[in-house]
Write a structure and sequence with these properties.
Layout (H helix, E strand, L loop, with lengths): L2 E6 L10 H12 L4 E6 L16 E4 L2 E4 L1 H11 L10 H17 L1 H14 L3 H15 L3 H5 L6 H7 L1 H7 L12 H16 L10 H15 L9
Parallel strand pairs: 1-2
Antiparallel strand pairs: 1-3, 3-4
Length: 229
Amino acid sequence: MAILLHELVGSDPAKPFSPHCWKVRLALRHKGLDFQTVPVPFTGVPTIEGGSGIVPVLRDGATVVADSFAIAEYLEATYPDAPSLFGGEGGRHLSRFVESWSQRTIHPVVGSLALLDIHDALDPVDQAYFRQSRETRMGKTLEALVQGREQRVAPFLQQLEPLRALLGAQPFLGGPDPLFADYIVFGAFQWLRVSSSLPVLPAGDPIADWFERCLDLHGGEGRLVPAAA
């Protein structure tokens, strides 16, 4: 039985955009595992098997695992003879730090920049859910939340200086080769690439160069979904 990956999509089932789902996509390719995807809209997430209420969800035979990091740990334990996602126990703990940093530094900015673009790419029923849930949480309309977004790009790029310095000295966060830490950060930028046409990473930036390398990994898995027009 093929591995199944439930991943978040909008009105186009061929355009998954969740950063967490992209982490797992590349992790599966890193391990050399075949899988099939199951597209799920926002309003379909509560109905995914296992009842976790989140994506991604992975089914491997009789095993169902939710949460991207838990899935990576499952793949590492279940397929130890395939290339390692962490490069050892220390790498697993460092990946936890990278995930925490990414979700506190990159995700809030990407979410604010692409909020209306994500909404516009959803089916009407999901648009209603997305607008109501986000506007209730943030206390503003989606339109107000994205207003002046271009002015947020430069300060965001400054926040990324530690990442830029590292990637100016080595090809990947994992060193000469990518590890799950790379897929964590890649997922955040792929979320932006797939969801919004707003330019953020300037050409020649070491982060932009790294992102291009990540898009080419595993037969160009990241490029299978085109950038937002």
